């Protein structure tokens, strides 16, 4: 899903839907990547774009019968801001990601 402002792309969300890896029959959506472009990210419209992408992902997910949405934050770009937004719109923190340079 692509977000546009004045006809220009300003963000996107990439999702998939499938069964949980432990084999339950319930479908869940995974938000693999969400990005609001740097040019608008820190503005008021950047927040509105992010909310619109979340809402679009939720509508897409519901249309496919998913019971849950997993939102992965792995880029370390504005991590505190992403965490605050996710919690504010109803997501619960359930884990974390770790990186090791080899």
Features:
Aminopeptidase, single chain, 102 residues, four-stranded mixed β-sheet, 33% helix, alpha+beta
How far apart the termini lie comes to: 34 Å
Q: Low-confidence parts, pLDDT < 50 over ≥5 residues? A: none
Helix content: 25-40%
- The name CATH uses for the topology is Aminopeptidase
Classified by CATH, the class is: Alpha Beta
Oligomerization state: single chain
Task: Tell me the number of helical segments per DSSP (H or I, 4 or more residues long).
Answer: 3
Q: Count the strands?
A: 4
The SSE order reads EEEHHEH
What does this 3D model show about the protein?
It contains 3 helices and 4 strands. The N and C termini lie far apart (34 Å). The protein is 33% helix and 29% strand. Strand 2 and strand 3 form a beta hairpin. It has a single domain, classed as Gcn5-related N-acetyltransferase (GNAT) (Aminopeptidase), CATH 3.40.630.30. The protein is of the alpha+beta class and 102 residues long.
């Amino acid at each position: 899903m692509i977000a546009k402002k004045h006809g220009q792309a300003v963000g996107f969300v990439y999702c998939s839907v499938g069964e949980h890896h432990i084999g339950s029959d319930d479908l869940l959506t995974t938000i693999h990547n969400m990005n609001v472009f740097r040019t608008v990210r820190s503005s008021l419209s950047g927040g509105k774009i992010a909310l619109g992408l979340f809402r679009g992902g939720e509508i897409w997910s519901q249309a496919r019968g998913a019971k849950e949405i997993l939102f992965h934050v792995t880029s370390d770009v504005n991590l505190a801001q992403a965490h605050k937004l996710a919690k504010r719109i109803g997501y619960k923190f359930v884990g974390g990601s770790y990186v090791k340079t080899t």
